[in-house]
Amino acid sequence: MTALADIAELGAGAPFLGPWFLADGLVEQAVTIAAPEAGTLGCPLRLPDGMQDLRWLPPTIGALGYAVSGPDAPVDILALRNAEGVALFATPGLALGHFRIERRVQSRLEVLMNRLGETGPRPVSLTLAFPGDADDIAAMVRPQGDSATLEALGLAGSKGLVHDFKIPHRLLDTAGINDTVAAILDALRERLSIKIGDAPKVTSPETAQTLLNLPGRSANQAILYAHDAQGLAIDPGYVAALFARLLDAHPELAPPALALTATPAICPVEDWRGIHFCGFAGGALPEDTFARVIVETEKDGQRTGRPAEVVLGALEPDAALRLAAGTRPLRLAQVPKGRFRDNGAESLQTLFTFWDGMDAPDRDQVRVMVVDHEFLLTGQDRSDAPTGIQDFDSARIAVAPGRVGLGVTGFAAGASLVACLSQGEGTVATPWLEPSVGGPPASLGSFQEADLPEGFNLQALREGLTIEAAHLRGTGVLRDGAVQNAAALVTLRLTVLEGGDLPADLQLRPLLHVLDRQSGRLVRRMCGPARLRTDPSGTGHVAHLLIKELPTLSQDAEDPQIGFDLLFPTARGPRTLADLRVARPEFVDGAHVTIAAPEDTVVAVETGRMGPGLMQNAGETLVLLRADGPVLLMPDAQTAYGPETVGVVLNSAHSVALLPPDGRLVQGPSLAPLTGAAVQTHADDGGGVLGRHRGTLAVCDATACLGGAPGDPGLMQVSSPADPFGQDAGEDVAGVLSALIEGPAAEPMRQALRAIQVPDTFDLVADAPLPTTPAPLAADDVNAAQVAILRSVGRGGEGPQAGVVLPKIDTLGIIDALDTWLDTQEANTEPEVQTAIRALRTAIDGQAHRARAAHRRILAMTGLTEMRDAVLAAIGRAEHHVVIFAEALDLEPDAGLAVISALSARLAARPALEVIIVAGDTAVAIDKTHFDPDDKDVSLEAWQNRLGSNRVHGVKIRAPGRVQVRQYGSLVAVDGLAAWMWPGGLTRWGLLRNGSVGIGILGDVVEGGSSPLVVGTVRAGLAWHLGIPLPDLAETIPDIARLLGQRSA
Fold this sequence. Notes:
Layout: H1 4-8, E1 21-23, E2 32-33, E3 43-46, E4 53-56, E5 62-68, H2 75-78, E6 94-101, H3 103-115, E7 125-131, H4 134-141, H5 147-152, H6 179-192, E8 212-215, H7 216-221, E9 223-227, E10 233-234, H8 236-249, E11 272-278, H9 287-290, E12 293-299, E13 302-307, E14 311-312, E15 319-323, E16 331-335, E17 338-339, E18 349-354, E19 363-371, H10 373-378, E20 399-409, H11 410-421, E21 426-430, E22 465-471, E23 477-479, E24 482-484, E25 488-495, E26 506-515, E27 522-526, E28 530-534, E29 540-547, E30 553-554, E31 561-568, E32 575-583, E33 602-604, E34 609-611, E35 622-626, E36 629-633, H12 646-649, E37 654-658, H13 671-675, E38 678-681, E39 696-700, E40 703-707, E41 734-742, H14 746-757, H15 761-766, E42 784-793, H16 818-826, H17 831-844, H18 848-862, E43 864-865, H19 866-877, E44 881-885, H20 899-909, E45 914-920, E46 922-923, H21 928-931, E47 938-939, H22 940-947, E48 952-959, E49 963-964, E50 966-968, E51 970-974, E52 978-982, H23 988-993, E53 996-1003, E54 1005-1006, H24 1012-1026, H25 1037-1048
Parallel strand pairs: 11-19, 21-37, 37-38, 41-50, 44-45, 45-48
Antiparallel strand pairs: 1-4, 2-3, 3-9, 4-8, 5-6, 6-7, 7-9, 9-10, 11-14, 12-13, 12-15, 15-18, 16-19, 17-54, 20-41, 20-42, 21-39, 22-25, 23-24, 24-30, 25-29, 26-27, 26-28, 26-31, 28-29, 31-32, 33-34, 33-35, 35-36, 39-40, 40-41, 42-43, 42-53, 44-51, 46-47, 48-49, 51-52, 52-53
Helix pairs in contact: 19-20
């Protein structure tokens, strides 16, 4: 048993538990918490007869604030919900005392609850409400007529409304208190338990006398409420009983200095056991859901079942929860910690049992979240009368279980692609793919990360610095008298300096100076990293920098220069050696080489590896250092590639669909002869730019990979924008979203990939393979999720019929049974249409899987906005927070996108909703010429200004030297439970016009009311973009939002 003295040493974080009420100053005058009201879970107080005075005591260490209800109440108050998910205190007329448990106490109490096996909600706050206004509260905490106290309490102001919790809510984070407030607090400290100076500035059971002193009339009308960290309602009687159970197990939690005449108890409670049923993230449930959820209990030897209600109370032990079959697919999870379950193919299977008869507590509550996961992830509902896309098997957006791993960096995307291709036969589709794409090579782990010594005189390096540049043969092209896409190998030599040497393996980052022709300003582009090594001559250090894609230059230009900065790592962040220059080398025509001679010296520029016969690792650029100048080395044998690369795992069992546009002027070795894979290059189909697919999609066996970027080795890195050093090989500091999906969800991904790979509709249908049935996932897989496969296709962007037959077909009726629609179309008088429909029937040949291929293709020909629809619907259901990682943004001049409108509407409907948007200072659309030619770059501030809320927190993606950092792919996470990811931006082209395959996921596992899969990805992305080590970032999204709000303030 932990000693009481040890707990006391925790100070304001000590999890002491004390009694809640005193009636007329006597503990013997017991106040009993009644059973909760079904709609609110609020509890009346059963008071002793003739009671004159009720004193509300602090239940543990925490902060007290006062408020009155109404639409202008503080956000913390408006965030509190009733059992049905509706704001509890939005209507005027109630006076409120709101007590919030101190954060460290919350954490320690949760540890103790877990040890006792408690599975119910975790309490964070208690609120005592009674009819009244600010004057009524003031009368209970101050002498009458003391207006200064009223103001200090936050109760002064227009209409007597509370503007903030001033005592002691702010004192937890405030170092000093002004003299006026200090004097008021000193006068009230016996009542409010506030200490000034070195004493604790919190309300605690050790020092408290009263939180509120209610006269009998107010106490008789008072209702006590409890809530968790998300503002969801909890039975206060359950909280009191829970604290009593904790106190029984740990008597040392009783405060040592309570001036009571009896053994401390928490508070008597009436017996009650109940289940609170809620929707996604605590929101409301549709009425027709309750009839399908059956709770079965036994009494007097008879087991009976009754349908669920929002709060189903007075339950007997051994309650069994079952789910009846119905039109909508439902999944249920006990929260805040549990796992989503469903019936599978059965009906009324027992999903949960509660309260074992031998050990059932007399007062307890559990919460069960019920989610229509298909509706949640797709935004499309099912109905008893078929009217929508989800009502027809052949048209339905597929939702299936899968094991999901999400990544936020280029190396993570490369590793996912390699892992997928390693599974066996399959296909990959992408605008381009090079064999040196892959995961981080093992050799990167051998480098010791080094920083410049503290106080190192960086400017002194100029004195001993020699810079040479040579054209890298095998790059660039001379066209129309101008050199385009050339690369230079820049060699830096540093002599040994007096007063200190540079550490071994020091990493450098060059920033190339580039003129932005649109703005006329000089910008800096991040180039690949380099390693500073000891010069073989022994006279200093040498580093090789590769500067790719030099600006186009006329062959007749006089004295052209390459300007760049050098970034050096230090313990306090990057330092810059600015404005270095070297003569731009002349273009030397010549091809790259595919094999190095034994006597050749090879350098892997980005990692600094040097020697003969180097293997090509992911993201590295190999250069031969020859006497007549450096030459690009691109191996054409699989044995020359590292084990973590596409060049090794790709083989004759794979096919590669290279999609338009192939924008690379410098190509790597041809994939077909190198790997044996069948490579097919696709031309623009039908709609041209409208039909171009973004990102990378691969499916092999029962594994799929989705990447937000093409297969570009320049993206293979993990360094963050704020700290562009580390285990890197890539040239671009860029975020790349990716997903590796295993299990049944890989099959609909395969179908989506075929739709991209096979442009001819009749071939797509006639050759459609029978769907595979991958093995089910392990029951305890923590990365298991429900996965929706969501397609975006611009109207006319898929299928050769797009430009000829489509305008003649009545596509408005396609949301119907396929046979019915075909019958209607066959009656069309256009001979061309009749011929096409008959050919389609022949291709289908009565096979369900072919019918699905046909129906989904016809839908795609008319245009698919499945991701846009899903994201808008998800935002419209957000309860607590939305996090957006945006490849690009626009301000939606047309009404088709409506993301800003959806966010604005939800911010207005949920006063406590927090929104985090991660994007560049100017979120530049990726490859605008190829994918979104008329989207305009829009700044993050423009979005924030349009949304007009201080609850919208922007995170700019910036690197040192004001280098713009690109984000490939977008992600929207809602309430830490579900997320949507796709290649492209929150733009018209990214969601309405280009083609892409994206996913929506709902994690199976719930911890703390959130999905570890979703929250882990959000935290990893924010840590990467902010340059913060992941362990140093707040663990919950609300805490991150709070810190971002404080930073902006």
